[in-house]
């Protein structure tokens, strides 16, 4: 068998190359084409040898011997495993040149806990964004490959994936309790009274391991009016909501959603459904609603609407949403504060203040879960002033919905009760959408299992009772 050993290839003329570095290691080859290897064979570099000049094929060399745990500057042609278990840090991309390539991969599924920041060099761009804008990688198991294209687009992400769930058999939440209905791939448990949400399987991230929820407290009663002065509307029960599958801002009322579903374990979760405040009689002529509770979540009972009386003055009460102010002669009275105690996102709004003019005052409506309420404008002389309407509740599909498609009818929760007028304008004011009661001689009660505030009363009649609350839990089961 013939064997050729060479130390170097040096071109000697325009037509030939001399192969070899010594007298005994030379070969003459055609300078136009140099062929290494043979058909079916393999060209192998010796141990310790390196190659250059062959170009890159769009892949990177993964730096498995150096797991990154702190800010570093990447090198074109390299891929990096980044471990953010100890905290967030930054990858600084190199100066861009056409064809430069860098890959980044979540080392052990920690990007969702501690995000990794990718920062371009100077004023260069990423994916055609603004000059110098960074990219944040905050998804568990995420991996991204960037290739520099040109100054218009900058670094372009050509591959983006999430491998955190590979090899894991999907597991789903399974539970009993309440009234159970099915909506597509989701189970919905509705509690209109006390009970237990019993979780038998907690699931996992590949299927489901968290639950969406609506927790609504009992609404406050409407304030009791005297023979001349109307009471304030009852505040709605606190409204707490989370859903990773719905965008609540697209729905009327625009309820605020918590940023993430509630994680569950295989155990029993006692459910408390708050009662509405009892219809107001006597003094102080108002009653707040009771709290609703699920796991670590508490929705506060709505504040009762203020007593309508010339003296002494009674304010609307604080709560999930605040009670409206009553009529007190020709002064402006105090309403109750919503989102009390404070939570984020807010669970309700303030009640409306009362107002007066030289002829006739009117009481404020109770606050609602979806919007701040305002009193009606006073127009002209006696008899022109009405009580303020209740604050609008939060609107969502009855059973949440599947992938954004509602199941059942659309409904509201946590509407404020209407405030009453002064006796010179004995007209009613509507409750807010979401079960708020209307003001009347006897205030109208808030709707059961809506958390609506009760309507206020006139003429020493009773204020309307607040509506009871509700707890609804939803999760993907298949």
Structural summary, described in words:
With 478 residues, the chain is mostly beta strands. The chain has three domains: 1-31, no CATH class; 61-162, Jelly Rolls (Sandwich), CATH 2.60.120; 169-478, no CATH class. The chain has strands spanning 9-11, 16-22, 25-30, 61-62, 72-73, 78-82, 89-92, 101-106, 116-119, 135-137, 142-150, 154-162, 173-176, 179-183, 186-191, 195-202, 210-216, 239-242, 262-263, 268-272, 292-294, 297-299, 394-397, 410-413, 470-476. The strands form six sheets. Strands 14, 15, 17, 18, 19 and 25 form a six-stranded antiparallel sheet that branches. It has a five-stranded mixed sheet with strand order 4-6-8-11-12, with no helix packed on it. A five-stranded antiparallel sheet has the order 13-16-20-21-22, with no helix packed on it. A hairpin with a 4-residue loop joins strand 1 (9-11) and strand 2. It is elongated and about 105 Å long.
Considering the chains and any ligands shown, give keywords for the structure.
478 residues; 3 domains; mainly beta; Jelly Rolls; five-stranded mixed β-sheet; six-stranded antiparallel β-sheet; elongated
């Amino acid at each position: 068998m013939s064997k050729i050993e060479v130390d170097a290839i040096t071109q000697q003329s325009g037509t030939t190359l001399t192969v070899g570095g010594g007298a005994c290691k030379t070969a003459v080859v055609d300078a136009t084409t140099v062929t290494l290897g043979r058909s079916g064979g393999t060209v192998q570099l010796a141990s310790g040898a390196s190659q250059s000049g062959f170009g890159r094929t769009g892949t990177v060399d993964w730096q498995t011997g150096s797991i990154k745990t702190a800010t570093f500057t990447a090198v074109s042609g390299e891929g990096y495993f980044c471990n953010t278990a100890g905290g967030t840090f930054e990858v600084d991309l190199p100066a861009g040149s056409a064809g430069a390539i860098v890959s980044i991969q979540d080392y052990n599924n920690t990007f969702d806990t501690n995000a990794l920041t990718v920062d371009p060099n100077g004023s260069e761009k990423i994916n055609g964004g603004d000059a110098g804008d960074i990219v944040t990688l905050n998804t568990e198991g995420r991996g991204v490959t960037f290739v520099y294209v040109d100054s218009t687009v900058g670094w372009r992400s050509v591959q983006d994936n999430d491998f955190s769930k590979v090899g894991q058999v999907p597991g789903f939440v399974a539970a009993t309790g309440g009234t159970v209905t099915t909506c597509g791939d989701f189970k919905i448990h509705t509690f209109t009274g006390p009970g237990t949400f019993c979780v038998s399987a907690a699931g996992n991230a590949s299927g489901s391991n968290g639950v969406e929820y609506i927790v609504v407290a009992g609404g406050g009663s409407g304030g009791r009016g005297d023979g001349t002065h109307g009471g304030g509307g009852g505040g709605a029960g606190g409204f707490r909501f989370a859903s990773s599958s719905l965008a609540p801002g697209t729905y009327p009322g625009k309820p605020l959603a918590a940023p993430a579903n509630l994680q569950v374990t295989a155990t029993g979760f006692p459910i408390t459904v708050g009662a509405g405040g009892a219809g107001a009689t006597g003094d102080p002529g108002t009653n707040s609603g009771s709290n609703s509770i699920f796991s670590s979540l508490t929705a506060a009972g709505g504040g009762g609407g203020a007593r309508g009386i010339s003296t002494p003055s009674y304010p609307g009460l604080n709560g999930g949403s605040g009670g409206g102010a009553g009529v007190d002669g020709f002064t402006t009275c105090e309403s109750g504060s919503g989102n009390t105690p404070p939570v984020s996102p807010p669970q309700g709004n303030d009640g409306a203040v009362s107002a007066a003019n030289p002829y006739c005052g009117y009481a404020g409506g109770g606050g609602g879960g979806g919007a701040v309420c305002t009193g009606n404008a006073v127009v002209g002389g006696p008899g022109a002033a009405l009580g303020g309407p209740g604050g609008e509740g939060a609107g969502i599909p009855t059973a949440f919905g599947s992938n954004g498609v509602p199941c059942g009818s659309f409904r509201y929760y946590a509407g404020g009760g209407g405030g009453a007028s002064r006796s010179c304008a004995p007209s009613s004011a509507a409750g807010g959408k979401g079960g708020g009661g209307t003001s009347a001689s006897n205030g109208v009660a808030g709707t059961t299992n809506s958390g609506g505030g009760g309507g206020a009363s006139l003429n020493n009649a009773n204020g309307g009772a607040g509506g009871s609350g509700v707890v609804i839990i939803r999760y993907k089961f298949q």
